[in-house]
Design brief:
In the C-terminal section; belongs to the NAD synthetase family. Pathway: Cofactor biosynthesis; NAD(+) biosynthesis; NAD(+) from deamido-NAD(+) (L-Gln route): step 1/1. Keywords: ATP-binding, Ligase, NAD, Nucleotide-binding. This protein folds into 2 domains: about 5-290, 4-Layer Sandwich (Nitrilase/N-carbamoyl-D-aminoacid amidohydrolase); about 315-670, Rossmann fold, CATH 3.40.50.620. About 35% of the residues lie in helices and about 20% in strands. The chain is built from 21 helices and 25 strands. The chain has an 8-stranded mixed beta sheet with strand order 6-7-5-4-3-2-1-16. Strands 15-14-11-10-9-8-17 form a 7-stranded mixed beta sheet. A 4-stranded parallel beta sheet has the order 20-19-18-21, sandwiched between helices. It is globular, with a radius of gyration of 27 Å. The termini are far apart. The mean pLDDT is about 95. It binds nicotinic acid adenine dinucleotide, adenosine-5'-triphosphate and glutamine. Glutamine binds next to loops.
Length: about 675
Amino acid sequence: MKTTLTLAAASVNTVPMDLEHNVGLIKQAMAAAVEAGAEVLLLPELSLTGYGCEDMFFCSEWLDDVQDVLITLSAEVPETLITSVGFPLCYPGGQVFNAVALLATNRILGIACKQTLARSGIHYESRWFAPWPADQFTQIQLGGQMVPVGDRVFDIDGIRFGFEICEDSWVAARPGRRLYDRQIDVLLNPSASHFALGKHEVRRRFVQEGSRAFGVVCAYANLQGCEAGRAVYDGGNMIASNGELVAEAERLQFCEVTLISATVDLLANRSQRIISSQLQSEMQQDDVVEIKGLLTQRGNFNIAPALSQYAELDEHEAAIRTASLGMWDWMRKTYTRGYAVSLSGGADSALCASLVYLSHAYAAYELSAESYQRALANVGLKLTVPEDKAARLAWIKSDVLPQLLTTVYQGSDNSSDTTANAAKAVANQLGAKFVNWSISSLVEEYCSRISGMPNAEPLSWEKDDLTLQNIQARVRSPGIWMVANRENKLLVATSNLSEASVGYTTMDGDTSGVLSPIGGISKTRVLKLNAYLETQGVILRGDNGDSERHPLPALHAVNSQRPTAELRPVEQTDEADLMPFPIMDEIRKLGQVQYLSPQGVLNRLADSPLTEGADRTQLIEWIRRYYQLYCRNQWKRERLAVGFHIESDSADPKSYRRFPVLNSQLKRELASLS
Ligand SMILES: Nc1ncnc2c1ncn2[C@@H]1O[C@H](COP(=O)(O)OP(=O)(O)OC[C@H]2O[C@@H]([n+]3cccc(C(=O)O)c3)[C@H](O)[C@@H]2O)[C@@H](O)[C@H]1O
Ligand SMILES: Nc1ncnc2c1ncn2[C@@H]1O[C@H](COP(=O)(O)OP(=O)(O)OP(=O)(O)O)[C@@H](O)[C@H]1O
Ligand SMILES: NC(=O)CC[C@H](N)C(=O)O
């Protein structure tokens, strides 16, 4: 009897609907798995099509095409490998299932389907897929073969495999519980699980705990990178045996394929099942698909030991890596020559510009010279990457960033030397192209036109405060758009999550842009990330496992100021306009993550150490201000540039937080606050 198994789990950076690209990555992963001596390779959920194909999953002709590609792929699986590939299965009855096919030498061994569709947070799977009912199984005709489908166990030469597809593992009634009764040895989880702060810990818990409680080997394979524009998938594949992690991938990698593998002890897991078994339900056998002649005992007892430490990423590093990887993928996948940023010398735009630079610093350190060079060539930069990694940072600053990041300081009459100097210092640190121009004449021109309208009074700060603020933010937009057009760059919108929640931003002014890299990061965190970048710096890893910190000291000029919009002639701070950021972010979390009512938010806020010293009247005033702005400005959130999901919540109405544009303004709830 076979007692060990060498398993591999690969992450791939897919492009939705790009079957050729995705098949290319799958082939790379299969070759790497063979090289690692793996007998079974697990790939992520919907790895053939990409996870985020959205309403393309409704197109039956395309789904037929996908099936043809799957059949062709089955003929290309290396002889010694069994590969599991995620794909949308168009069932003869018309439903589409989120499925996974087990492929081996020219055959589709069988198909398992997702039972629990993801429908919280950014997920809307039940729009496209039907959930497969537990305990149901059948077979269908596919490429001239009869293929077993459904809630299946695959017995390959005496080793039993079962599937939980992503969300299946996150719920109380996880299929693994019933697969345990059916005596599986290996539980495979193909996933498309996007990054959110604190989430990886949960994944690790259910992989490890699944292995311990069910007495099985658990393998987990997640997508990697910014696949479809919003979510960034963090990879972080795992293999657990006997309740311990034996392999775990570094997360948020810049390469397109990442693979881990481990040889696991099947006997040890079986013993665990014998000890814990309390089997009461009747054993089913018909659902077991028996396959012979693929797996044989190997003379390999080099069993992977439990990991002594996990691949940890601290919270700041994880948020910065996620946004940098997102920007890297946007540049690659849009084939544009980098980014244009209107750089104010303030916290938000400084972080956005730094992320552009860091996406190259990470890529230059982590990719081979050839891969990095190819990525640059694809956006039109014919450069030779230095072989020596230590020389690459200075080189990206001198040769790459001047071409891929253009920054413009656009001073008005309300701007200060402090912000102008800070913007210049940051641009210099990053190697960005930097221009300083004034918007005063443009503002004046608009003001004179509006003041000259029939029967109009001249504009004044006493009567026209918001009008005069907003025109400054708006006249900054056409110039930086023009730079983006001319240089074929993506314009970066610099709004953060806190501002987006309350609409503290000028529509068609500072909201202008294609991509909002910090749109999923709260202001409180933006300030912490900038401090981290200034004083500690991100971790850059060399080839031989050594790493170095890379601080950006020029951010000191930004971090030493209090956030100000500089839109009024008198001193203005964002916190005086709104409320202290930590309080605003706490209200957001209580209201939008925990779904408390305004009164519930008030009760919790009153007990929070954050509000020590503030009386209840003040708290009521802040909560009213927050919700009034929140309710009024849904229309703004509907029009924000696409942003990455980073905090556990998001303001994005398309992928996360639904709220009516016209609404009650919560008048009743806010009036009764006490
Ligand atoms: N009740 C309502 N429901 C829905 N829509 C409503 C509305 N009342 C006005 N509107 C519409 O909204 C428009 C106003 O929206 P908009 O022009 O965007 O401007 P608005 O929201 O009035 O003001 C922008 C705010 O953002 C702040 N800001 C701007 C720029 C940068 C920064 C910074 O932090 O640096 C801060 C600025 O200090 C100000 O408080 C009105 O002209 C009207 O069309
Ligand atoms: N003087 C300026 N020059 C260029 N761009 C500016 C200027 N002032 C504002 N902007 C643009 O408008 C955006 C919004 O301004 P805002 O003041 O909210 O952001 P910030 O200055 O980056 O950060 P902070 O809010 O911490 O001051 C900026 O991020 C920037 O893109
Ligand atoms: N693809 C999925 O099923 C994703 C759902 C899961 N809870 C996650 O976000 O990781």
